[in-house]
Amino acid sequence: MSEVNFFIDNALYKNDEIPVNLERFFKKVRNGWRLRSVGIIISEKDNTTVFLPKNCDIASITENDIALLIKLLIYSSKNTHYSNIEDDLYIEMNDKFMIINELLDDLYKNGIYIGEKKETIKSNQGKINWSKSISSSKPIIIEDEIYLLNLYRDKNKKNIELLTTVHGIVMEQISNNYGRFLNGFNYTFKNKPSKPLDVDSTVTKLQLLKKLNNEHRTGHLIDLIISYFDQTRNSEDLILLTENFNLIWEMMIKSIFTHEQRYMEHLSRPYWELRDPNGEYKVKKGRNTHIPDALVVTERENHSDLDIIDAKYYDLTKTFEKNNTKLIEMESIVKQYFYEFSIDYTSSKLSSGKNYFAMPWFRVNRDDKIFSKVGKIEIDLPRFGRKRIDVLFIPTFTLMDSFLKRQKYYLE
Question: Could you say which DSSP state residue 181 is in?
Fold first, then answer.
């Protein structure tokens, strides 16, 4: 894909591979730079930069994929209503991106701005303007009845005015400069003036128009357009990024497998108490919270199981390319089994189900299946027998697409 530079989250890059203006999105490590962001920087003049999620295959990325990533990040910035995600998820969207996004939302909702002008004309249809009719017509008397021969009525006519022209020009600029990455946005304004806009005088006229018009959409649209002009003067780049794609991965997993928040109340929590032997401080008490990423009810053989999914946004490069044998840290394995042992299955009226780790598929962006079982983790516990965690590989862009379409999937 021309004019687009790609980097992959958590991948290691040499010092000479990272432009100075991008260094803030990377972490300096002993032997180079490691990316710590997912998102996009769209530039009008220079190359656009895309930071892809972990494990993606750069060679198969399309413009539609980039548009999908942008759509996901914008959606995630507005919808963080999932347990333990809202407070931690931060998405950096610079002012220019926010303004353009609002302009697009307004256009999709309301269309290009068309002002209306009220005219009072002679007509047989419409609401009669009695004041105009009486003052402009001579009445006649027929059999002691007074008649007006000419009735004037009010008509609203579409008026192609300044705001319409400016709105159309701005939306065409957005289409030309950024449309390929904004879900294929394509717009051409057919009534462009022969001369280019003088931005300063246009802003002055728009400010005056706002004072004369108290209609909400008109005022809001004028504010957006003036802000767009200000941002165009100051910055050419659109920035939309997050360092918390792991939380978005968790949010998507919760959604497509239908996380059942209500069963969290059946999860036991550790209680602790600490005493100062010198008696100087009061007794300290508290509870720890341990929250599974997704509790999923699965129907199997005439009974309902409670499956537990841990969303693992892991980089699998070392595992596959460097034969790393420490894919999953022991803490995650212990925690997963502890979740299972902590649930009161009697009060929940469910049976103990299966355990899963859900990871982004290595070098596969899309697939016909939303998930594939690719492996397992097993351990023999003397008091509990053999315990197992199945590993699910999920193609990242298939997951994004399914999540935004609100599709649901079921475990076996």
Answer: G
